[in-house]
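Notes from hallway chat w/ T.B., transcribed later so I don't forget. T.B. wanted the structure written out for a chain they're using in a teaching module, and asked if we could keep both sequence and structure tokens in one place. Agreed to drop them here.
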Amino acid sequence: MKKVNTKKIVKRKKIKIGPLLFLIVIISLFMFLNFSNFLLEQDENLKENDKGNDSVITESSLSLIMVGDCLIHGAVYSDAKTENGYDFNKMVDLVKPIIEKYDLAFYNQESILGGTELGLSSYPAFNSPQEVGDAFINMGFNLVSLANNHTLDRGKKAIYSSLDYWKTKESVLTAGSYYSEEDRITPKIKEKNGITYALLSYTTTTNGIPVPKDGTYLISVYNEQTVKEDIERLREQVDLLLVSMHWGEEYTHTPNQNQIKIAEYLASLGVDIIIGHHPHVVQPIDFIGDTMVIYSLGNFISSQYGVNKLTGLMAGITVKKVTKDGVSVITLENPTAQLVYTYSEITSYRHSYRLYPYKMLNNDLLSNYQTHYEKYMGIVTSMNSRIIPIL
């Protein structure tokens, strides 16, 4: 007889895990996404904090060229006479391409532009046609010194006539002669390429002509205290501060001790560039610390005799501004020097005055011009090896 197994056989029920696993995956994914978003938010916050810590640096620059005395003798304005007035444009057309490529261009208006209504005159008491200014503005000049030993030559009328003329030229910044004391001390600030700049101008001589007691503002005569006050009034308001100085000894290629003393004083007050003229011949360019000093640019145009007086300097510089975290620093880079020559040839009772860059000269225009170039460029670069000659 078969033995019967009386143990109950129990069948195990199979559990379905598909929906449970799906639920776990969904919950895990949800938590992962939330955590990922949290990490992303933290990363963005860190990036924002990093941006706040990063220095913001900006850079800008401008180019500046400076030339010397515009001394319009009778022979020069007679040569420019036309049926309708005066035209000086042909005299300067060969240097115009050089000047107009610069952002800023400076010159000293040695003979006052009182205009024809007051009667033109030459040495020793000058008064020139205002068309001179038209030609120089057409070349690209926009910085003009009005303080020199001939500013008082023809009195108040000529000065006011000159100021009235320049007042209409909005693109031009003048300095050294003013309508009033209020006009003199009012800051005159311009801006180019994000760089603010101002010009001050002084003369150390008036040729013995007394400055009117009731009109000391008509001409800025150099005085240490006045200059200090003028500079302090402007220094913190501008990036670039230029000071024009009419100083030194005529026809001397070496700066005298007074020029050097003044240059050192101006440099100590934080002037960026000192632009010198009056000797009518070129003198060296130097640097006192960070301050560029041009002791004499010589004549730009005149009818004086002698190659030394007919050779002038065109000094160039690049002004660079670097601003970091709101603090700006100005540096002067690539100082250059070019020479210019005032040529004339008497034809049909005219002199045919014309300015030639030395690089355009030949021996027919100026005999031994290369020797003259080496001589005068040697003078210009004699005090500082940073100066870059251009020919």
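Follow-up for T.B.: Confidence is low (pLDDT under 50) at residues 1-17. Might be a good example for the class.
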